[in-house]
Amino acid sequence: MQTDMQTPRVLITGGTSGLGLALVRELRARGARVAFVARTAERVAAVAREHAADGIVGDVAQKHDIHRIALQASGVLGGLDVLVNNASDLGPTPLALLGDTECEDFERALVTNVLGPFRLTKALLGSLAASAREGRGSVVLNISSDAAVNAYGGWGAYGSSKAALAHMTRIWNEEISSQGVKLLALDPGDMDTPMHALAIPDADRATLKQPRAAAVEIADAIADLLPTRSTVLRRAS
Amino acid sequence: MIAADRPVQRATDSKLLHADAAGRVRTLPRSSLLDLLSPGDVVVANDAATLPASLRGVHVEAGAAIEVRLAARASLASADVLRFQAIVFGAGDHRTRTEDRALPPPLEPGQKLQLGPLTAVIEQLLGHPRLIALRFDASAAEVWAGLARHGRPIQYAHMPEALQLWDVWTPIAAQPVAYEPPSAGFALDWQLLAALASKGIAFVTVTHAAGISSTGDPDLDQLLPFDEPYRIPPTTEAAIRRASREGHRVVAIGTTVVRALEHSAARFGAVVAGDGVADQRIGAQTRLRVVDAILSGTHEPGTSHYDLLRAFADESTLRCADQALDEGGFRTHEFGDSVLIFAANARTGRGASSPYTSRFLRAPDVVQESGRLSSAGRLVGCSS
Questions:
Q1: Which of A35, B28, B163, B203 has its CA 20 to 30 A from that of B364?
Q2: Neighbouring-strand partners of residue A9
Q3: Does residue B363 register a pLDDT over 60?
Q4: Do B144 and A67 touch (CB under 8 A)?
Q5: Domain-ending residue, one of B150, B180, B202
Q6: What residues have CB less than 8 Å from A134, skipping those under 6 apart?
């Protein structure tokens, strides 16, 4: 498949379920070239096949996977314009008060939700800046949460990690905007996803947002941050 | 010189040997690089990321352990990864000096090489018993996945520790098309790029498939550098055209940048955006059309990298520089210290109104005057 200047090249982490999968579907439907990362080889192969996307087996929480993911993504896509750090860890499940949270669970949330996005963004910063220099635009979108802002009991590990991610996003955006790379953290809202079911098993699913709807909003946000001539990601109106 | 044997890209005590357009040589901390550049100058770096191009495996027919080092392919296209030129070693790894490495079994077209998850077939020999054209029996996506999983960075005996990809990717590393790191770019970081921008110095890139630096075989080394595909983005063409029009300097970060820009300029009369394959050798006889200065690692005489420096500086300047590198305790190889050499006919970096600095500035009185420079750095006195 050839990519021209109009076809954004996107990498999505956590691409085989929930919001990540909905984003793979939405961005493919809008004509983007999409690669995605997830941990389970069988799921990766199935999603890659179904959506004609490039599947990468890897774990953003594993330091030694980061450059392999970056190599494979920038290699197979021939560059990278958009990185969506979506893969997340809830911390303890079922949710626990901080006083009852195992250190290992807190640590895993930080590694997956903060350190992983930091490492992957850093490994791909050269690719993203190259896209900006070429006038293609360059966006890092980090999936945040209202738990990053509000103090919800039981969401200590997750909320702290997402708050750190959101703040890192703002600082990095300040530092790197002169190179044309834009970073944004977005809260997609409470969605009907496997992760939400883990957190709140008895939630009324009818009140939850569908990941598909959140993916549409996120794709719109990405399109807004890309140069206006990159019309591919815009919804037909 | 001392071999840099630890993979530290930006040591705080990194040194810089500066040879100016008049051939005067002095040593500085590498952190003073920014001070040697002027507003309007254009800094051009190679943004290629480095492939894990060393693949351990088995020569299936002989049942013998081998190491295959991918060394070239026809283009930079992401789908064009089924066919490579490669150099084959026998058993062992980088901890043995390349010149002492065991030979592989005799190589013939049609033989199968099992390289971790990747299967390759030898398509032909390329004029040397260890230089092959191979074809991966896989899709492009499978090749990328296989390289990511099984490949290791190419490395040499001066660096015993196994290198990781993060060791060999420069901070600006983008598309993975280089076989060895464009290591002059190790000197760059995002802080420096921000400082360049605030000083009004343009930063642009080429993407150039930097090849392997040594094979351990004199006949093979004669063939280096192999043809190297490169890509010049439109913004780079525009920045260089502007510098040329306004009399500003073009500073290449690394030999591969010189090779790409000068190849394009020789072909089109000026640097033109687009893809090309650099197949020229640059040496003392080369007339530089574009590049005014090169930031490079320190290189030993006799290498193709060293030859390239002769396009910038004459024998006496390079001899003086070599002496300064030795006496100054400079560290060599890819993680070592740096040299910044301005071509004898480099523009002055003060814009269009300034006259070209030319060779006649090497008159003895000017060399004496240059003692003033010692306040900014240790001026090296060479008897030439």
A1: B28
A2: A33
A3: no
A4: no
A5: B150
A6: A5, B233, B234, B235
Which residues in A lie closer than 8 A to residue B170 (C-beta atoms)?
126
**Catalytic residue at A152?**
no
Per-residue pLDDT of B252-272, as tens digits, reads 999 999 999 999 999 999 999
Contacts of A75 in chain B (CB under 8 A): 78, 81, 144, 147-148, 175-176
- In this structure, the answer to whether residues B374 and B228 fall within a common structural domain is yes
**Cβ contacts of residue B109 below 8 Å, gap of 6+?**
B122, B123, B124, B125
Structure token digits, residue B39: 């507003």
> B233 — contact with chain A (CB < 8 Å)?
yes
CB contact under 8 A, A126 and B174: yes
| Count: domains in chain A | 1
CB spacing of B175 vs A134 below 8 angstroms: no
Percent of chain B topping pLDDT 90: 84
pTM of the model: 0.93
Instruction: Indicate the residue among B119, B150, B181 that finishes a domain.
Output: B150
Task: Work out the pLDDT band at A123, boundaries 50, 70, 90.
Answer: very high
Report CB contact under 8 Å: A175, B172: no
- Taking the Cβ of residue B49 and every Cβ of chain A, the question of whether any pair is shorter than 8 Å is answered with yes
Which two three-digit tokens encode residue B109? Answer: 């077209």
Co-location of B265 and B319 in the same domain: yes
Exactly one of A36, A106, A118, A158 is catalytic; name it: A158
Q: What's the pLDDT at B368?
A: 32
Residues B226 and B95 in one domain: no
